[in-house]
Amino acid sequence: MTVTTGLETLLDDPAAWVQPDQRVGLLSNPTGVDRRLRSTIDLIHAHRGMNLTRLFGPEHGIRGDAQAGVPVDDSTDPRTGLPVTSLYAKDRAVSSEAFASIDVLLIDIQDAGVRYYTYLASANSAARRATEAGAQVIVLDRPNPIGWMGVFGNRVPPGQGSIVGLDGLPIAHGATIGEMLSYLARRDGRALPDVIPVSGWRRSMRWAETGLPWVPPSPNLPTLASIHVYPATCLIEGTSLSEGRGTTLPFEVIGHPDLDAQALADDLNALGLPGYRFRPTTFVPTFSKHEGTLCQGIQIHHDGGHNPAILAFGPRLLELARRHTGGAFEWIRFGDVHFIDRLGGGPELRETIDAGASIDDLIARWTSQTDTFIDDIGQDLIYGTILPALAGV
């Protein structure tokens, strides 16, 4: 079966979606490619049927040359000469003039399928601003690389949303970026975007079945293996442990100079998570937490099957990592905010671990919230139903 992205459908017949005299803005980055790995930016810029006038860039920039968390300034793209409006500037402020200068906003970006990942929040903000300015929003849809694993996690309470967790979203949402942007627009009472769907794709497909090339969505998610463990291990970002940034295996290794790695590996293996094993290792991050310092850590190994239960592994990992790091374990703060509360969708995760309370009970509460999200997004789904993930760890 041939899987065709929204980009390729647009390029086959652009007049069905965009008029030649319309001023087109494009939100994209290096993940926007066709099956021959040609850049969406370059293809649309060169297309006679579309008038590309402005680029919009998320975290890491339109050409993927900025590290995680590093603010990206407005600029001029050296390849096309087009103005670039950053959605990840230092103050996150984007001028209204940028959206007033376009008639159509195209969105072509590969989401990771996880609420912590900033691309969805940036795309939703851009879609909202474009709609407010009277522009048409068109999403060039792409598969969710972990959509087949299902939906997992608590929902971010109203008023506690952030760029690493929009209000109402579970940890792994199971949907494509087109479905998610439709859901968010409908929920917020905005005009829905036009979604050019992925043809030939089923939600149950793993990436290898799509026949599409895999492009790392950001510098610290280099492989499909890192994408599959990211919903769990990204929670380590909220602690004093390294999540593996500055190594060749970000999010596949975690560690700390004072971690008892053998004890942690033994306890993780005792969980019996099917398809996964854990071994003690050492690493020295070249940047980020514990830069230049030897860390005792564990590496996550998988058998290639990527059991969906890995989605629910994060709280258990935090519980055991705290136990085996002793007094050196800390929750990272940004000002008065615990970062884990942003990632965890509120303080419940942190408070559960601090109190030594039941992780099983926490996951049971989260599962009930997962079910409500599945009900809420149902009418926005294009590729069939989504199911709750296995949560038994």
Observed structural traits:
393 residues; Rossmann fold; 2 domains; seven-stranded mixed sheet; three-stranded antiparallel sheet; 12 strands
SSE blueprint and pairings:
Layout: H1 6-12, E1 23-28, H2 40-46, E2 51-57, E3 75-76, E4 83-86, H3 96-100, E5 104-108, H4 118-132, E6 136-140, H5 177-187, E7 194-196, H6 207-210, H7 224-233, E8 253-256, H8 261-270, E9 276-283, E10 295-302, H9 314-325, E11 333-334, E12 337-338, H10 339-343, H11 348-355, H12 359-377
Parallel strand pairs: 1-2, 1-5, 2-4, 5-6, 6-7
Antiparallel strand pairs: 3-4, 8-10, 9-10, 11-12
Give the percentage of residues in beta strands. 5-15%
- Looking at the overall shape, the CATH architecture of the largest domain is 3-Layer(aba) Sandwich
In DSSP terms (H or I, runs of 4 or more residues), the helix count works out at 12
Mean pLDDT across all residues, rounded?
93
Q: Report the principal-axis shape.
A: globular
Class per helix and strand makeup: alpha/beta
